[in-house]
Task: structure prediction
Amino acid sequence: MIKKIEDWNYYELLNVERTASREEIWEAYQAALSTYHPGSLAAYSLVTEEERRLIVERIQEAYQTLRDPEKKKAYDLALLKRSFYYSPKAPFRKSVGKVEIEEASQKRGFRDKVRRLFRRKKPGGEAP
Amino acid sequence: MGTRIWAVGGGKGGTGKSFVSSSLGLHLASLERDVLLIDADLGGPNLHTLLGMKNGHPDLGDFLTNKISVLEEAAVETPFPGLRIIRGSENILFIANLNHYRKLRLLRQIRQIKAQDIILDLGTGSSFNTLDFFLSADPGVVVATPEPTAIENSYLFLKSCIMRVLKLYMDHYKIPDLHQKMLDQIEKNSQSLYGFFRSLVDADRAYGTILYRALRNFRPCLILNKVRDERDVHLGRAMADVARKYLLIDLHFLGAIPYDGRVHESLRSLRPFFVSHKDSAAAKSVREAAEELAYSVEFSHRTPSEIRFPEGR
Result:
């Protein structure tokens, strides 16, 4: 529901869609940096200095991850795996991937069940 | 036929609330809609001057002091077709501090007016009256300028709105315990609103649900006025982003209106800028802001289909 700054995922931090291209991510990164740079008007009076520094750190981290296709892929996978634990009504993730994520985690659960079934069957099958 | 009630507000004075409301009114009237402007700046009414009109009776004060029983009778025609106005009262002392009963009566009567668009031009500051007018309207438009003072006051105004929404919500569902907590926090004033939300949710997860539910329907819009360069347009989007993360509200950025020195001249010659400089960039961005709102998916979803805007300009 209300997330700590540490819990905002990289897409929420940069305010981009999960399907964003590299250029879009670069633009979002620049925009996010200017939103939270020291002396930024947008954050004026609302974001404390401490919070602001934390966010900028996280934004750097987000960009370093998302710019690299390999890392991005790994990160997306990790998000998908964790997504099961998010509340479905979380305000920050309404636009993107809600359906997609929930479907994905369900699929995984289903596949696991099937796999588990087969794993159980296999030793049984070999025995006779 | 549904009525759309706009409220144009924002914490700081001089950001152009009256300019935006009169321009919006003129724009909507030019689309052949039936528009009523209400000068709800109880402490300092001047909307009529922007339209080149003199003050006089009937006005809002006549309604509030019971000289007129129906609010709509206080509406007078402006020189512009399709646009009516309820002027604010000169008799400020009696009106500026509305009591609760009068305020409710006014709000109720506003809803009964037969017009397609009603635009409330609110006053400066975050008094309960102003907040309640702002919250009763949909859309509520916050006008800010790209200066730290205006932005600080806009956030303050939004925070006060949020507090008011939460208070109404808690009163309605009888959660006094949470309300007391909120008041304590405000008195201490030690935390940001975000910090307050966080500590609430840490204390009890159910509060998070309450907060989220209460704020889900509060979707103010933002217009940046007197913008001088490209950076300021980015500022609008950045503010919306920050408000979403820190105030947990969907702040919808409608657009930026460029600074135009000729506004001052039009004001002095008592001719509405929107009419005398129809093709200026500032007038164009007012039209674009209205369209941005009209065509936004979220807004048209929560608006009955019959009061959507006509296609095109």
Residues 98-126 of chain A form the longest helix (29 residues). The interface with chain B takes residues 1-2, 4, 8, 12, 15, 31-32, 34-35, 40-48, 51, 89, 91-92 of chain A (CB under 8 Å).
